[in-house]
């Protein structure tokens, strides 16, 4: 865990982009298309204009989504120069899935990315996939699984990333960005390979867990036979602040962490620390301009040991008081910390940009609980998500510093890990996820 960035009250419209797809009427009684007759296990799904269980329209103030509309469960624009779900105001729930590619047919995979893009645009607008969950041919499986019928968009965002292993497929090796490096081994890691890595990932964030799960389920369904889920993680209770003036949410240790996260409204800091620039990558990787790099780490917390630790020691470990979340010697959580007042191995002191040559990342972490570990201990912790302009200058030096001497290491362990190149946003209805990556051949 690190005491660094997240996002705030901006959406994918931060840079003045258009909104999501328009909401169309439901077509419960319409005739099925040829593709819906084929079904999800065949050539693909029809992703047409049909919708079942409508969507909530967004209210706009200038180029931003009206906060009242967002509070009512309205949608977040899907199209824009950057993918939503990075600098977007952090939602309360997460379903993250990493996939392995099972096809070696490049054209088939490109078609999947196009189908996924159309489905994602519909779901983020609160619409059903394809021709919907009902009303089609009774003998054919419906295009949508149906569990989100009647639910609002709940600020759903869907964000795709490409793992290093994908670039060994489809003759993409020369298009792998220089900044997309394999993460080194860090001191204290105990990584489960079955829950690490992946050819690509989808991050679904929403304020309703059923909306997030529905999105991943339908994308996995559309990808049947072409991709398969390698591992996934559910998350709840965002652990990062969403606006500069808001109180930072608490992690499962009861502390506020990451109070200096980048705000989604801080255009200059986003450009400096989050969005990839053409000069960051090799000559064949300009397709990543406007994208970002994601590190996902599952961090197990030794909850039972932590709960038997004295309050004073807990506060010394973090470098904050537990009640207000203020740095040592300060009154409020957002007060500038005086690092030398903290113990040398305090988490805040070691994670602070001033202790890391200015390293700054954008955090979107979530708590998780996954039953017990078989020994009567709670399987719980933090699913850490960090976006940055360059992993080599972001997470890697930061984690090296933390892994060596952070007092918190006694109570946590990194048990899974992955890194992904997150391409720029889908510009309009004719664009699709990864188009620029495949543009030389597409």
Question: How would you characterize this protein structure?
Answer:
With 442 residues, this protein is α+β, with helices and mostly antiparallel strands. The chain contains ten helices and eleven strands. The protein has helices at 34-38, 67-71, 106-124, 209-222, 267-273, 303-307, 311-318, 347-351, 395-405, 435-438; strands at residues 60-61, 64-65, 93-101, 157-162, 200-206, 227-238, 292-301, 362-363, 366-372, 378-388, 412-422. Strands 3, 4, 5, 6, 7, 8, 9, 10 and 11 form a nine-stranded antiparallel beta sheet that branches. Strands 1-2 form a two-stranded antiparallel ribbon. Helix 3 (106-124) runs antiparallel to helix 4. The radius of gyration is 22 Å and the shape is globular. The two termini are 40 Å apart.
Poorly predicted spans: 2-70
**Which structural class is indicated by helix and strand composition?**
alpha+beta
Portion of residues within helices: 10-25%
Task: Give the helices and strands as they follow along the chain.
Answer: HEEHEHEEHEHEHHHEEEHEH
Strand content: 15-25%
Separation of termini? 40 Å
The total of helices stands at 10
Largest sheet: 9 strands, antiparallel
Dominant shape? globular
Count of DSSP E strands?
11
Look at the structure and give the mean pLDDT.
85
- Compute the CA-based radius of gyration: 22 Å
Layout of strands and helices, then pairs:
Layout lengths: L33 H5 L21 E2 L2 E2 L1 H5 L21 E9 L4 H19 L32 E6 L37 E7 L2 H14 L4 E12 L28 H7 L18 E10 L1 H5 L3 H8 L28 H5 L10 E2 L2 E7 L5 E11 L6 H11 L6 E11 L12 H4 L4
Helix pairs in contact: 3-4
């Amino acid at each position: 865990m690190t005491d660094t960035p997240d996002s705030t009250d901006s959406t994918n419209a931060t840079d003045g982009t258009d909104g999501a797809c328009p909401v169309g009427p439901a077509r419960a009684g319409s005739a099925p298309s040829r593709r819906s007759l084929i079904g999800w296990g065949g050539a693909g799904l029809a992703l047409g204009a049909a919708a079942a269980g409508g969507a909530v329209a967004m209210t706009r103030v200038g180029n931003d989504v009206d906060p009242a509309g967002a509070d009512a469960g309205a949608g977040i624009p899907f199209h824009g120069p950057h993918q939503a779900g990075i600098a977007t105001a952090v939602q309360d729930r997460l379903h993250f899935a990493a996939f392995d590619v099972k096809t070696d047919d490049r054209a088939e995979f490109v078609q999947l990315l196009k189908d996924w893009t159309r489905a994602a645009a519909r779901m983020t607008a609160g619409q059903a996939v394809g021709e919907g969950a009902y009303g089609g041919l009774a003998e054919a499986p419906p295009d949508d699984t149906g569990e989100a019928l009647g639910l609002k968009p709940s600020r759903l965002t869907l964000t795709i990333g490409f793992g290093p292993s994908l670039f060994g497929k489809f003759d993409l090796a020369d298009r792998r960005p220089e900044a997309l490096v394999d993460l080194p081994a860090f001191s204290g890691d105990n990584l489960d390979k079955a829950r690490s890595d992946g050819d690509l990932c989808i991050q679904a964030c929403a304020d309703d867990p059923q909306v997030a799960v529905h999105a991943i389920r339908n994308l996995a369904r559309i990808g049947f036979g072409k991709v398969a889920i390698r591992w996934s993680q559910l998350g709840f209770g965002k652990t990062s602040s969403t606006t500069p003036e808001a109180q930072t949410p608490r992690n499962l240790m009861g502390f506020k962490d990451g109070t200096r996260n980048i705000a989604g409204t801080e255009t200059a800091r986003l450009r400096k620390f989050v969005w990839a620039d053409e000069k960051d990558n090799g000559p064949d990787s300009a397709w990543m301009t406007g994208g970002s790099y994601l590190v996902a780490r599952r961090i197990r917390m030794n909850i039972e040991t932590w709960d038997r630790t004295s309050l004073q020691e807990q506060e010394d470990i973090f470098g904050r008081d537990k009640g207000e979340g203020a740095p040592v010697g300060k009154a409020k959580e957002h007060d500038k910390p005086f690092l030398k007042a903290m113990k040398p191995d305090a988490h805040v002191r070691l994670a602070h940009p001033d202790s890391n040559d200015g390293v700054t990342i954008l955090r979107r972490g979530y708590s998780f609980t996954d039953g017990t570990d078989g020994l009567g201990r709670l399987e719980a912790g933090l699913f850490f998500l960090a976006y940055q302009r360059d992993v080599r200058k972001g997470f890697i030096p930061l984690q090296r510093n933390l892994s060596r001497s952070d007092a918190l290491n006694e109570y946590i362990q990194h048990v899974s890990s992955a890194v992904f190149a997150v391409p720029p946003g889908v510009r309009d209805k004719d664009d699709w996820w990864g188009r620029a990556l495949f543009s030389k051949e597409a």
